[in-house]
Amino acid sequence: MKKAAKQSDDLRPEYDFASMPGGVRGKYATRYKQSTNIVKLDDDVSAIFPDAKAVNDALRSLVQLAKATVKHA
Hints:
Elements: H1 29-35, H2 43-46, H3 52-72
C-alpha cells in the first residue's frame, strides 16, 4: 500500500478567496475566547489525575472544604 504524498503548506489552487466576499478575520474570536476556559496543568500535577473528571471532582471537593472552613471560622 502506497503512502499518500505529503502536501506542502501552500493552499491548493482551487481555493480562490477573491470569489468568497464578506470574509472577516477574527469574526468569532471574542465569542470563542469567552466560551473557552482551558487550564494547563503542570506535568507533575497531571500525572496524578487520569482524566478531566478526576480533576474536576478533586477541585469541587476542595471548594466544598474551603467553604466549610470559612463558615466555621
